[in-house]
Amino acid sequence: QVRLVESGGGSVQAGDPLRLACTASDDVFEIGRMGWYRQGPGKERELVASITSVGVTNYADSLKGRVAISRDKDKNMVYLVINNLKIEDTAVYFCNYRKLGYDYWGQGTQVTVSS
């Protein structure tokens, strides 16, 4: 069982950057894919960014140019940086690990963007 714990959320100002971190209880980079999802008020959960075991990244089209996903294999951590935050980035952000078709989820961290 892999446990994922997110950190770094909170209340931020529009235009500011934000970095979220996800700490995994086990090695999650040998196989599978790590990702960040978000769910805004009244919206469905959507993929923000992902990174595979070989380092291939993928980003939501709506966020390309503003987000970056990275990882620290030694620490079993994945990071998400969002630049130039917008009001519509307000959401709960979830860390995800997908391995052999099974999804592990963190509890999520709230990000609230205000003007």
What is the percent of helical residues?
Answer: under 10%
**Beta-strand proportion:** over 45%
**Number of DSSP helices?**
0
Give the ordered list of helices and strands: EEEEEEEEEEE
Q: Report the uncertain regions.
A: none
Oligomer: single chain
Euclidean distance between termini CA atoms: 40 Å
Number of strands: 11
Core attributes:
single chain; 7-stranded mixed beta sheet; globular; mainly beta; 115 residues; 11 strands; 4-stranded antiparallel beta sheet
What would a concise description of this structure say?
Helices cover 0% and strands 55% of the residues.
Layout of helices and strands:
Layout: E1 4-7, E2 10-13, E3 18-24, E4 33-39, E5 46-52, E6 57-59, E7 67-72, E8 77-82, E9 91-99, E10 102-105, E11 109-114
Parallel strand pairs: 2-11
Antiparallel strand pairs: 1-3, 3-8, 4-5, 4-9, 5-6, 7-8, 9-10, 9-11
Describe it for me?
The protein is built from no helices and eleven strands. The protein starts with a strand and ends with a strand. The model has no long low-confidence stretch (mean pLDDT 96). Helix content is 0%, strand content 55%. Strands 2, 4, 5, 6, 9, 10 and 11 form a seven-stranded mixed beta sheet that branches. A four-stranded antiparallel beta sheet has the order 1-3-8-7, with no helix packed on it. With 115 residues, it is mostly beta strands. It has strands at 4-7, 10-13, 18-24, 33-39, 46-52, 57-59, 67-72, 77-82, 91-99, 102-105, 109-114.
